[in-house]
Write a structure and sequence with these properties.
Elements: H1 5-12, H2 29-38, E1 43-46, E2 51-53, E3 60-62, E4 67-70, E5 83-86, E6 93-94, E7 99-106, E8 122-124, E9 128-131, E10 134-136, E11 141-150, E12 158-165, E13 173-181, E14 187-191, E15 196-200, E16 207-212, E17 225-231, E18 238-242, E19 248-251, E20 265-272, E21 282-289, E22 296-303, E23 306-310, E24 314-317, E25 323-324, E26 327-332, H3 343-346, E27 349-351, H4 359-363, E28 370-371, E29 380-387, E30 392-400, E31 403-404, E32 425-428, E33 432-433, E34 438-442, E35 447-451, E36 454-455, E37 461-469, E38 472-480, E39 487-490, E40 500-503, E41 513-517, E42 530-535, E43 540-542, E44 547-549, E45 555-557, E46 562-564, E47 568-578, E48 581-584, E49 588-593, E50 599-605, E51 612-613, E52 621-627, E53 641-647, E54 659-662, E55 674-677, E56 687-696, E57 702-704, E58 708-713, E59 719-722, E60 730-732, H5 737-740, E61 741-751, E62 757-758, E63 763-771, E64 789-795, E65 798-804, E66 815-824, E67 835-842, H6 845-902, H7 912-932, E68 950-953, H8 954-957, E69 959-960, H9 963-972, E70 980-982, H10 985-994, ...
Parallel strand pairs: 6-13, 15-21, 24-30, 40-49, 51-58, 60-67, 70-71, 76-77
Antiparallel strand pairs: 1-4, 2-3, 5-7, 7-11, 8-12, 9-11, 10-11, 12-13, 14-16, 16-19, 17-18, 17-20, 20-21, 22-23, 22-26, 25-28, 27-29, 29-30, 31-35, 32-37, 33-36, 34-35, 37-38, 39-41, 41-45, 42-44, 42-47, 43-46, 47-48, 47-49, 50-52, 52-55, 53-54, 53-56, 56-57, 56-58, 59-61, 61-62, 61-65, 63-64, ...
Helix pairs in contact: 6-13, 6-14, 6-16, 7-13
Length: 1226
């Protein structure tokens, strides 16, 4: 075999000037070329058959085709590095952030090479400080950990010329341009720079903040929010500003306001970036100065040289018709410093008793004079107000007086009376409080003054006062109105002194309404007063609007709110701010109970010590849904629970959908609330799998269990197989060892039923022998060494096989023989299937080569035919399964149509879905109309079911359809209707403690179980015979009860409470019935539908034995069940919805089947069938040429998993896929 000029010229290019090194002997050139290529880069060359002129020997040769590949050698024949270039860099470059610089080294001819000596690169850039960690030599030369620091001026960065020098290279320098951007945030710069800042109370302070990198450049990045928290007082604001765009901004916010500040106060401002924990915060001290703005208004009255302060809302007594002079006012700031009144400030001062104000007098602190009314019926209310941009102040006082004057018959004042006459004056009126009443004599006016007139808390409105002096009297009518708001009350919310029980996430039973009231509790109609809400930190209310305002009646309605909080007691309080005075209502304490109907987690039980062999079945999984109170939620549809499984571990919140299992049908396990996943198939491939159970809370929200990690292990050993099937060997008994090699480097492994490697712990041997398909054939080939069997050690689950025939081995020419590999493993009780490999034996070398080619073609055809057969088998099974689905859907549709006919619902043959949709809509409307009709309900509030062991109050456990029976039974059980029934004494005791013993409870575990038989016949029926014919339609009272939930427990409760009590029409019928019953057996209590009662001892009559009218029961009456027609509508709607789903499914499976059948007749499918037939025909011809009988080569290939080239068809159902897999492995 000769070498093409092409390969030699490639080698010659590396030896310019040294051509004498190339061998001139043609036979020596091939090893030389391979040696050279072995130490250069990978080459793949094909030398095509052609005639060419050898440039070295000047002879013409006919070359053969030679395909070869050579890998890179190690440290051989690399040229010396003379120059370099910079490779592809990863952007961006940031200050202080390490990056790498790849270098591509070349020799003098431009070929890639490596560094051979220790070179330290030099990095330079004007204006930058550059450092690096190391230079990695070898095939990939990289300068690692390069950091650049310097000024870049802006957030967009700055261009720099980076110079790299590798000393010792011929071309040792490369310069390239980089754009360096600011680095990550490293520090905060806050202006002003002063450590202590001074601001006035009630003002906002602006900070100039800059985010800098470690070189002092302003930097920016997403979500760069700077916060400022003020410390040192309560209710201080928090400033925040976004520096994501420019890296700098003004940090400011609401004003800083501290109440009741009289002197300087120190605060601390902590400025930080919450998203950058490595950036140290900046702290500034702030000296908060009292505001210099007006903060307090003071009014005084001058009496000579003495100034008397008039406080806000004071009452002043003055002489009627007189004028109040010398009223002055003063204004002070927060530091109690008096403020000089300027002209601008005087413009903002208003009074309500005169429209004209002398501004000059106001600037001097003088108020206008007040004229006192001349009529005793008038009241003067005086208000002084000051309003500017910072504050709204007011001060008010009231001038009140009552003078009693004695006149003659003509209305003239009698001036002969003296102060002694005050003892004869009396004042009276409804609700008048005389405790502070004072009567004084006015010598100057000969009148008597009455002070301290006030009323006791009573209804507001017109009141009449009577003034009597001896035999004379006069009347004064006054209008009593509410005073100023002084407190806040919650309306219609009794017993606030004890916690209000509420279930987490549920709404309160009534809206939350607050009313402004005066100090006597009268509703104060003050509008637009802000109502705020304060609550515990972990209490959340919905809706979350925490601020409301009062209406014209002084009332604010917060609506019906829902409570969300952890279990325990939480407080909520409403507050109002009126004239800077906080009005607080009583604190509401909520006892939040866990929601027994809210699922929060899934509990999964299974045998955690079980193993998971491939292809086996999982242990039973028992799943329950737990509520907030850690109890199991019952009455859940099994369709909402599913089991998901996928290969691998962990997928975050996204669950893959490799395999999904539905809940198994519940067997005779009397455990309500548990869902079982039984007989679920373990995956057939070994590995780590994750299992997770999901509960569909609604259409969008899923509740997931913790992931269960299982390790699928191999199943029991079944057979001996190689990793991949070798080609059918074709050997001869010639001298060349390659022609006698049967198998080389064949690794046999122990496999389970699903072709998983197993038996890693087994030790033994594999015995190889040769057999003939013809048992009478005695001429059997032998292995090298003229032996018939060879043993190979088997360890760690595999054995390595190398087999060579003996030279001049016996054997028939062109005959097929079988290599048999039998495992001998003492540790296994059941023998494994041996592995068989057919081979062809020839005596002639040329014939062997020809047959080897045919054998390879046979193997390829066998594998291709196996794939095609698998494909067509799967397709046919898919069609059969689809037809089964169509048949099942048709059967389901016919069954539901017949069920609808039983309900007198006929369906049309056309437009069925439209008809069903309209019918469902109509039925739902009829059902809603039926539910909206008035019916009897129990208005007694039920006890919150915060525990699964609480059944509820007796009044809510049962329903009675007949009104008269409901009335008399409710009255009969009146003392028990409010009792809470629990399953356990512990739950009853908990309710007893929570209500401080005020709630009566009944635990069922304390009831003696020998209660009346619920199915016992009436007393007049004895041994199946009627002892007498009763009148009045007697029936057991318990038989009139229906139970919405917990039927078994409710039968226990009412069996104990009612016993054998009987309902009958009227009193006469009851007396007749009792008279006859006592002749044969004791008679139980009788209740009549007219409301009478005959006790079991025979006593009747009196108010104690007569039921009052229904409205007198105050809502403590058993409710009426939903009408029977409602249940009928529910059943019809359910059937119609099932029928609609069945029709849609039938249509879908028919479409899928037709689509798949059409796909079977496509040109592509017909072409595949034709290709399969042609390949089967070719295989038959090759086997005839080989002299082989049709073998099971295709079946052998089926033992190996194959990848089917399947089109986009629906995934086969589980049982069909299972059958397909079994076929693939058998």
């Amino acid at each position: 075999m000769l070498i093409s000029n092409l390969a030699l010229h490639c080698i010659a290019s590396f030896f310019r000037g040294q051509e004498s090194m190339i061998p001139q002997n043609v036979e020596s050139r091939l090893p030389f070329v391979l040696l050279m290529l072995n130490h250069r880069q990978y080459h793949s060359a094909i030398f095509h058959r052609k005639d060419y002129q050898d440039s070295f020997s000047n002879n013409a040769y006919s070359s053969s085709s030679l395909r070869f590949g050579v890998a890179v050698g190690q440290n051989f024949f690399f040229g010396k590095a003379e120059k370099f270039s910079v490779g592809l860099l990863e952007l961006p470059f940031r200050v202080g952030v390490p990056f790498n610089i790849p270098l591509e080294l070349q020799d003098e001819f431009g070929h890639a090479t490596q560094l051979t000596n220790d070179i330290k690169p030099i990095l330079e850039a004007s204006g930058l400080t550059l450092q690096y960690e190391e230079l990695t030599a070898g095939a990939n030369c990289i300068i690692k950990g390069v950091t650049a620091k310097g000024c870049v001026n802006s957030c967009q960065g700055k261009n720099f010329n980076l110079k790299i020098t590798l000393p010792g290279l011929k071309e040792d320098t490369q310069i390239f341009k980089i754009r360096l951007q600011p680095g990550p945030p490293y520090q905060l710069k806050v202006k002003p720079d002063s450590e202590i800042l001074k601001i006035e109370n009630g003002t906002a302070f602006p900070f100039q903040v800059e985010v800098l990198d470690e070189s002092g450049n302003i930097t920016a990045q997403p979500k760069l929010i700077v916060h400022c928290k003020f410390l040192g007082a309560s209710n201080l604001p928090v400033y925040s500003v976004d520096c994501s765009n420019a890296g700098t901004n003004i940090l400011t916010g609401p004003v800083i306001h501290v109440l009741n500040i009289k002197k300087d106060q120190m605060l601390k401002a902590r400025i930080e970036i919450p998203s950058c924990k490595d950036v140290p915060p900046v702290e500034k001290m702030i000296k908060l100065l009292p505001s210099s703005h007006v903060a307090r208004l003071q009014v005084l009255s001058m009496n000579g040289q003495k100034a008397i302060q008039i406080k806000h809302q004071d009452e002043i007594n003055w002489i009627a018709g007189d004028i109040m002079h010398n009223l002055i006012f003063q204004m002070y700031d927060e530091g109690e410093r008096e403020i000089h009144i300027t002209s601008a400030m005087a413009e903002k001062i208003k009074v309500n008793w005169t429209p004209k104000i002398n501004r000059e007098q106001l600037m001097q602190g003088l108020l206008p004079d007040v004229k006192v009314p001349t009529s005793v019926k008038d009241v003067r209310y005086c208000l002084i107000s000051y309003l500017d941009d910072h504050v709204s102040l007011e001060s008010a006082f009231t001038i009140r007086f009552v003078y009693v004057m004695i006149t003659d018959q003509y209305g003239n004042q009698v001036q002969t009376v003296t102060s002694a006459c005050t003892g004869y004056l009396g004042v009276a009126g409804p609700g008048l409080d005389k405790s502070n009443l004072q009567i004084t004599w006015q010598e100057s006016t000969f009148t008597m003054r009455v002070k301290g007139i006030r009323f006791k808390p009573c209804a507001l409105g017109s009141k009449e006062l009577c003034f009597a002096w001896r035999e004379f009297s006069d009347f004064l009518r006054v209008n009593l109105t509410a005073g100023s708001p002084a407190k806040l009350q919650i309306m219609d919310w009794p017993e606030l002194e004890k916690p209000v029980a509420v279930i987490n996430g549920r709404e309160l039973l009534k809206p939350l309404v607050v009313q402004l009231c005066d100090e006597w509790g009268n509703p104060s109609p003050e509008p637009n007063v802000k109502i705020s809400l304060t609550k515990s930190s972990n209490l959340k209310i919905v809706p979350s609007n925490h601020q409301h305002r009062t209406d014209d009646n002084g009332r604010a309605n917060l609506g019906v709110i829902s409570i969300h909080a952890p279990r325990g007691e939480h407080t909520l309080q409403l507050r109002a701010l009126y004239n800077k005075i906080a009005l607080e209502c009583p604190v509401i304490t909520f006892n939040v109970l866990p929601d027994p109907d809210k699922p929060i987690r899934l509990n999964v039980k299974y045998d955690k010590n079980a193993s998971f062999p491939a292809g086996g079945t999982f242990p039973d999984f028992m799943v329950s849904v737990l509520s907030e109170d850690d109890n199991i939620i019952r009455n859940i549809s099994p369709a909402r629970i599913s089991m998901k499984m996928w290969k691998g571990q962990g997928s975050g919140n996204r669950i893959p959908t490799d395999v999904t299992f539905s809940c198994s049908k519940i067997k005779d396990d009397k455990e309500d609330g548990f869902f079982y996943f039984r007989d679920k198939v373990i995956p057939e491939r070994v590995g780590t799998y994750s299992i997770q159970f999901t509960f569909a809370m609604d259409k969008t929200n899923m509740l997931n269990s913790d992931q269960i990690i299982v390790e699928v292990v191999p199943n029991d050993p079944v057979r001996l197989l190689p990793d991949s099937l070798p080609a059918t060997p074709a050997v001869s008994n010639v001298r060349a060892i390659t022609s006698r090699t049967l198998v080389k480097d064949l690794h046999l492994h122990i496999m389970d039923e699903y072709n998983n490697h197993t038996g890693a712990d087994l030790i033994g041997r594999v015995i190889a022998k040769i057999k003939s398909p013809n048992e009478d054939d005695t001429e059997i080939p032998q292995f090298q060494g003229k032996i018939s069997t060879i043993e190979f050690p088997f360890d760690r689950g595999s054995a390595e096989i190398n087999l060579v025939l003996a030279e001049n081995s016996p054997g028939r020419d062109s005959t097929e023989y079988i290599l048999v590999f039998e495992p001998d493993l003492p540790a296994l009780k059941k023998p494994l299937e041996p592995y068989r490999l057919s081979f062809m034996f020839y005596n002639d070398f040329k014939k062997q080569q020809q047959m080897a080619t045919l054998t390879r073609e046979r193997d390829q055809l066998s594998q291709s035919i196996g794939v095609y057969r698998n494909w067509f088998d799967t397709t046919n099974q898919l069609v059969n399964e689809m037809r089964c689905q169509v048949k099942e859907a048709e059967t389901r549709e016919i069954h539901l149509r017949n069920e609808l006919r039983k309900h007198q619902i006929e369906l049309p043959q056309t437009n069925t879905l439209q008809f069903v949709d309209s019918l469902i809509k109509q039925k739902m409307l009829d059902q809603d109309g039926l539910m909206k009709q008035p019916r009897r309900t129990c208005t007694l509030p039920n006890y919150p079911k915060g525990n699964q062991d609480i059944l509820g109050k007796i009044a809510h456990l049962a329903q009675i359809e007949d009104n008269e029976a409901a009335k008399v039974i409710s009255w009969h059980l009146a003392s028990d209707m409010d009792c809470v029934v629990t399953l356990t004494t512990e739950a009853a005791r908990s309710i007893f403690d929570e209500t401080q013993g005020r709630q009566q409870v009944l635990p069922l575990d304390s009831i003696y179980k020998t209660l009346p038989d619920w199915n016992r016949p009436l007393p007049h029926l004895r041994n199946g015979k009627i002892c007498f014919r009763p009148v009045g339609n007697p029936v057991f009272a318990r038989d009139l009860l229906t139970f919405p939930d917990n039927v078994e427990h409710c039968q226990t409760v009412f069996g104990m409470l009612l016993g054998d009590t009987i309902i009958i029409d009227n009193l006469d019928a009851a007396n007749h019935y009792r008279k006859e019953v006592v002749k044969i057996t004791p008679c139980p209590t009788l209740l009549t539908r007219e409301g009478d009662r005959i006790r079991s001892n025979g006593k009747f009559g009196g108010l104690q034995n007569k039921a009052p009218p229904m409205d007198k029961l105050r809502g403590m009456v058993f409710g009426a069940p939903v009408p029977k027609l409602y249940s009928a509508f529910t059943g019809q709607i359910d059937l119609l919805q099932q029928y609609r789903a069945a029709v849609v499914k039938l249509d879908d499976v028919n479409k899928d089947l037709n689509l798949h059948l059409r796909s079977l007749n496509t040109p592509e499918m017909l072409k595949k069938k034709q290709e399969l037939a042609e390949q089967e025909k070719s295989l038959m011809l090759i086997e005839q040429k080989l002299g082989m009988t049709p073998s099971d080569k295709v079946s052998e290939l089926l033992l190996q998993p194959v990848i089917l080239d399947m089109p986009d068809t629906p995934i086969p159902p589980k049982r069909m896929r299972k059958e397909t897999v079994k076929k693939l492995y058998r």
